[in-house]
Amino acid sequence: MGVDLPASTSLSPGIQAMIPFLYAAWSDRHLSVPEVESLRQQAGALPFLTEEDKPVLREWSDPARPPSRERYQQWLSSGRLAAEALPEDRTASLAELGVWLGLAAEEDPDARRDFWAAQLPALQELEANLGGVQEDTYRSLFPLYDQRQKLAEAITESRIDPNDLQRILEGERAGIIARTKKILLRPSFDRPTLRIKEDYREQVLRWCRELAQEGIGALSYPPEYGGEDSMSEYAGAFEAIAYHDLSLVIKFGVQFGLWGGAVYNLGSKRHHDRWLRETGTLELPGCFAMTETGHGSNVRGLETTAVYDHEHRELIVHSPSIAAGKEYIGNAIHARLAAVFCQLIVDGESHGVHAVVVPIRDAEGHVLPGIRVADNGYKMGLNGVDNGRIWFDQVRVPVDNLLDKYGGITEDGSYHSPIRSPGKRFFTMLGTLVGGRVFVPRAGLSAAKSALAIAVRYGLRRRQFPSESMRSETIILDYPNQQRRLLPLVAKAYALQFGLDHLLDRFVARTPDDMREIEAMAAGLKSYATWFTTAAIQECREATGGKGYLAENRITDLKADTDIFTTFEGDNTVLMQLLAKSLLTEFKKSFQEDGNIAVLKFIGRRVTTMVTEQNPYVVRQTDREHLESPGFYQTAFHFRARRLVTTLAQRLRAYIKEGKSAYEAGLLCQTHMIAAAEAYVEQLVVDAALDRLEGLETSDVSETSDVSSLLKKTIQLYAVHTIEGHAAWYLESGYISGQKSKAIRKLVDKLCAELRPEAGVLVDGFGIPDKLLGAPIAVV
Amino acid sequence: MGVDLPASTSLSPGIQAMIPFLYAAWSDRHLSVPEVESLRQQAGALPFLTEEDKPVLREWSDPARPPSRERYQQWLSSGRLAAEALPEDRTASLAELGVWLGLAAEEDPDARRDFWAAQLPALQELEANLGGVQEDTYRSLFPLYDQRQKLAEAITESRIDPNDLQRILEGERAGIIARTKKILLRPSFDRPTLRIKEDYREQVLRWCRELAQEGIGALSYPPEYGGEDSMSEYAGAFEAIAYHDLSLVIKFGVQFGLWGGAVYNLGSKRHHDRWLRETGTLELPGCFAMTETGHGSNVRGLETTAVYDHEHRELIVHSPSIAAGKEYIGNAIHARLAAVFCQLIVDGESHGVHAVVVPIRDAEGHVLPGIRVADNGYKMGLNGVDNGRIWFDQVRVPVDNLLDKYGGITEDGSYHSPIRSPGKRFFTMLGTLVGGRVFVPRAGLSAAKSALAIAVRYGLRRRQFPSESMRSETIILDYPNQQRRLLPLVAKAYALQFGLDHLLDRFVARTPDDMREIEAMAAGLKSYATWFTTAAIQECREATGGKGYLAENRITDLKADTDIFTTFEGDNTVLMQLLAKSLLTEFKKSFQEDGNIAVLKFIGRRVTTMVTEQNPYVVRQTDREHLESPGFYQTAFHFRARRLVTTLAQRLRAYIKEGKSAYEAGLLCQTHMIAAAEAYVEQLVVDAALDRLEGLETSDVSETSDVSSLLKKTIQLYAVHTIEGHAAWYLESGYISGQKSKAIRKLVDKLCAELRPEAGVLVDGFGIPDKLLGAPIAVV
């Protein structure tokens, strides 16, 4: 706060600390003589009271000698002044005030800070033992008491226990999330202001090491390399770390997920034995050198080469141009090894992209000969991550460093691969790296949840403009506009959690057969979720006004750090097109495989839709029961997803018939493709959320019925708000009438208003500890 | 770049510098003997060639003795290596390469940097005199030659001269904009990386002083105080400064606009005499202390008091609580005086909010007794602005410090004001400060233009994924999705310029009678334009991918710095409601004033609309001629604006009839109010843009016809894209059919494609010098 207390009076620190208690004792006149006696006795045992203090205290708490009006006023006024200066994250309690007053009266407060902090528990006990201190006493001492109280009420006004929500959101990852949070709450994880990238990077490296030492880094590796063989645990740790610092989670992901993942997924056992354990402990920092300046998302067109030299059994790794340099590589400044993606050339023949492990620094951290590294400099955010560019100048490494699970070089110097088709080989290799797209959106969702928790709590606390009664200003979140801004985002965070969990479950249980589908799903969900993160945090920034613009309230860092999520691990627009292509392939395949039956099925479904959904009655149906039924929004989501793929296929075919090439036709339908992919993802999210709800309802835990009806309403809001967002499309398609579109808009308003009293508990359900949230405006 | 050149060979710097010329001379074999002779002669005169160099040069350029294949290859390879390392902002020329090679061969390059930079002109002349060096020569030397060339072509492929566009955009402010830019291009305005707020603030203060010394700060003040009495010139300077650094423009606005404006607009002549001249030169830094922590946008509820003490003829300025502290005050750390907004209390009676000038620091910069200032700390952006919180503890100032144009205290100690009604007085005082809302959106628009220029140029330069021919990857801006992202924003920037110019003209020519209207207009345009700024820069960030996330490419700073524009000078949501209320008042007034005639007019207009616009033919009309006609979109915009106000009035009336209070009714219609306000602003923007176009078409400058048809298409895109954004509403209202809605969407696609070849010239038309743009990815 930077606000100093007024100069202390001549009273000793010990007596100053007792002032709030003396004031309360005399203010609440109903205190009985024995109660006051007990106060005197307990106070006498406090370590900060000197021998000189004790008679003063005895005198001032003598039931027979009430204080003069003047002294009583003095107590009130010192208490009030201190209360005003009390940091916003402290509760409005006599104990906190006592500590604050005692500290302020010290000659050298800095030296005594720890001492006074340690007095808090004893004073809290004293306060509890005072018995019912009246509300008015607190109100007279604490200028913001009512506001704080109101927030506490606003949060607790719901009948729901946030822990129930948290349990549902965290599912089987609750254990690892709690374990990770516990580490993150250690004092060593306090977040200082780090403006200079070098300092920030060192701090993040230290944090990362501490996590590694606790075994968090290796969670997904097999036990023989120090891990627990659990992708699901790794995912839980990842999303929890994202509540703390986004640079840390990215650095963590680069080291253990990307670099470690490349060794684990693309290498053979000898590679695992050589590098995996030390990777998990962060004794061996590594990086993942894929992207090149000249290419970005087009991995297949990488220019870096690895030429095989049979004579020396070596690979010569080389960047043929500046633009072929590896770009934006995380861990580039700390890494000792790099998994370098390059075109493997054997006997003059290129076998496509492979990964080669290249040492880039020695054990002392000096860059090795032939390696050039340049710092990427400051970025919008994530300045705790050491991104850099890397070039290779004819760097020779033993052929053994080729990560050869999907393609290696035999003793006799010839290339071999278990996968014959270079295209299939390439996609299989990339497929093993899909994990990034499964985890990144989870970190993004955590960041969005943090911002939403901050903004919603601020909305419950902050008042603006006198309301009618003129007694107090209106709570911001009581403005419908503010509800409209935040509540659909909170609802979407819930829905997305269920969608991402579904993806994670599929990913964890994956088989080669469903990899294509999971990859497509991951591409879509990564994009959808990270776009949500960007939009949600931006909205939170605006909804918290000037306060949200201050770095101390964290929304700014959340925004800056996650803004690149829409770009890295594959640019969202590119990923959405990948998904659309996969949807088209599936669509075509269903026709090819089933032949005429498929056509009949297709026509049949179309006719059914016309009859059951697009009939004049349903198109105009606006009763709340219909609009709130899962059946309505599920059919609406499915209709959109199906229709957009069908029309996409038709448009593409028409263009090709006109003589356009497949490439040109794709280009012309680009926007359409992205819409089709989005519709698929939304259908997936709503289905996953409804499945989860159904699971809750049929579970035999009866006390969850309130929770599940809250969640039901939350998912409803997500669904109806999403349909509202596509209202133009539904109207154009004749799926809803103008009246129905208006009714949907009104329903969104209504659901927002109905969820307003639950807003506090909904964000508390995210389970983010106050300390990790970190924003003064968000603390009760 | 951080990329070092390879170690130089044994050749001297002078000879190294000649290598590109030697290579070119021998590569372009058609050079005649006299041409080579002339090269030798000119080169002989170059100051960097030593006596030892000259015979070498003579030997190597002897037409009779061609170089060996080996030497020729050596030249090419040194040239290429240097060309790769050439910073991206240098042109692909032999001269640049020569300078670069010469410098790299120096033993101590740092010491010789300036020397070699000074050689450029002579080498450029040499290059020009070489005559037609073939394209292939450049292509073989410069790896990115084709890309650079392509961008240059992409920008120049249009027939339009960007200067013509710039002239139209800048209008009568072209002179001041050029004058300001000239100052900003001085080396003293180079932008270093400033991560620590204290350093950044000092830099901004120095910049601000330099502008003040040039008379830019005082532009809006009367000549007797060093000014030019021109709000319009001030506006031009303001938007030009925003091309340089947003912290600077805000600091500039606080000092000269807010603080100076308060003295000028709320004070009397004696205040002007005392403070205005030194304010304009920045010898007297001041701040504008209005907002309080506890209140934000609700100025009327400020808690700071100024109690009049007749005995001493003094005002006692006091902050009664922590929350009553002045919050977020720009210039708080540098200011010596503060215009403090407080409740004026005379004889125990409050006369509402007034401004009092309170000294807060002495001439040495020490904080005065009774004043407490706390730094606001780091913010998302604008860290070069010293925002802080200020509290006053019973601070006494002479009553003469009351800015008393609208309310003062007489000799006998009684309050007097030329405006009797406290409400009207309050709004009159606030009204004089509307300037901020006229200027801030202009700065926001400048920032958006910078981001758009960077993103569009990057889109023209960057390639991704091989296109069909596989010869080169596709230019990003050739992807329809990328066009969709950026071109409507470019179009909107043009439309907004015309809208904001209209507002500025009205503001400059304002009379007391139209102040209310101008205030409402300013509230709306400020919100609409700053929301645009936020959205546009965000889109540019995403559209430039990883490159856009690097601080060096400036989009990140533009984003972080302007993000608060939607909040300060009045929160946008609050301002939009103000505008809506004013629209409702006008709407009601028209009925009250004209009585039955108004009702008849209203019904008449409604019927006309039904017949001319909402008839089944027009609702379904999808021919391009209709959709592109200004008539169509103008009527559509007006219809929406009118309809939303009418239905808003009806809804409010219905709620009140139901027994709800005006306050409750307003709350229930909040979203509707904002929509109505937005529709009004959009109508205003499209009208202003069409007016401007009409002016161009009827002007007798015949060579502008190409320009005006380009502008026409640009405004069309803005209009049609805006209608597309409201498609759901138009469909619901039965104003367009589903078919027409689809046709509108297709038209947006088409206009984007048609404007794609003009994208380069459109952003060049913004007239932002490359140096101010500053982003390496945006430089040809």
TrEMBL record, chains A, B:
Q: Which residues form a coiled coil?
A: none
Is Flavoprotein a UniProt keyword of this protein?
A: yes
Q: Which GO terms describe its molecular function?
A: acyl-CoA oxidase activity; FAD binding; fatty acid binding
Q: Which InterPro entries match?
A: ACOX_C_alpha1, Acyl-CoA_Oxase/DH_mid-dom, Acyl-CoA_Oxase/DH_mid-dom_sf, Acyl-CoA_oxidase, Acyl-CoA_oxidase_C, AcylCo_DH-like_C, AcylCoA_DH/ox_N, AcylCoA_DH/ox_N_sf
- Gene3D superfamilies tied to this protein: Acyl-CoA dehydrogenase/oxidase, N-terminal domain, Butyryl-CoA Dehydrogenase, subunit A, domain 2, Butyryl-CoA Dehydrogenase, subunit A, domain 3
Top-level EC class as recorded in UniProt: oxidoreductase
The answer, when asked if Lipid metabolism is one of the entry's keywords, is yes
Q: Where in the cell is it found?
A: Peroxisome
E.C. numbers: 1.3.3.6
Positions of the Acyl-CoA dehydrogenase/oxidase N-terminal domain: 207-278
Question: Which positions fall inside the Acyl-CoA oxidase/dehydrogenase middle domain?
Answer: 287-395
Domain of life of the native organism:
Bacteria
Principal location class: other
Q: What's in the keyword line of the UniProt record?
A: FAD, Fatty acid metabolism, Flavoprotein, Lipid metabolism, Oxidoreductase, Peroxisome
What sequence ranges are listed for the domain Acyl-CoA oxidase C-alpha1?
431-584
Q: List, separated by semicolons, the cofactors it needs.
A: FAD
Acyl-CoA oxidase C-terminal domain: residues covered: 633-778
In its UniProt record, which GO terms are filed under biological process? Answer: fatty acid beta-oxidation using acyl-CoA oxidase; lipid homeostasis
Family, according to the entry, reads as follows: Belongs to the acyl-CoA oxidase family.
What protein is this chain from? Answer: acyl-CoA oxidase
Which organism does this sequence originate in? Neolewinella marina
What does UniProt list as this organism's lineage? Bacteria, Pseudomonadati, Bacteroidota, Saprospiria, Saprospirales
